[in-house]
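re: ur question from yesterday

yeah so i grabbed the chain u mentioned. its 205 aa long if i counted rite. heres the sequnce exactly as i have it in my notes:
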Amino acid sequence: MTKSEGRDITLRIAQEPAADELLARSPLAALVGMLLDQQVPMEWAFAGPYALARRMGQDDLDAHEIAAYDPEAFTELFTAKPALHRYPGSMAKRVQQLCQFLVAQYDGEAAAVWEGAETGADLRRRLNALPGFGTQKAQIFLALLGKQFGVRPPGWREAAGSYGEEGSHRSVADITGPESLAEVRAYKQEAKQAAKAAKAAAKGK
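ran it thru and got these structure tokens back, copy pasting raw so excuse formatting
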């Protein structure tokens, strides 16, 4: 996963070199980062896999190890200060469920989720089947794979929906540095305000 079209992949999602380096070389770290990306800042979510690996005394995450980890002890890895997420207990459970699914379905190999996909629609279906991955999360990760990892099965942009659009700044898939992070954050704030306004207008009818 560290190579795409003969190039080294450089990510700037977590805004921390060591955390971004892990995301670039570790398929599981990237998946876990995407799983954690809700109700916390994007860079905090995607720095989580690196922090988790360090707390486990490893330089990478291993699906087999996490799947078999004692649930209470694994939760403690998330809840120890500073907590790895705003909701560390529930997220620890979700990460473990994700790894257990990967072990059962893909022999613990996260990259096998996309390496076996023949089309964009097939890849979205595979991602959507992962625990904790709804349609939106699956589409965002699909866009991330296509835009920054070079994973581009036929129809990948269409399968990613609006997140797959070239030149967009809608999600983590479009973050390549501090400036694009600010643009994505601004887009998310605008979308949130628009949703609030629509909800208020609907109530007023």
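noticed a couple things. DSSP finds eleven helices and two strands in the chain. also The longest helix spans residues 178-204.
anyway ttyl
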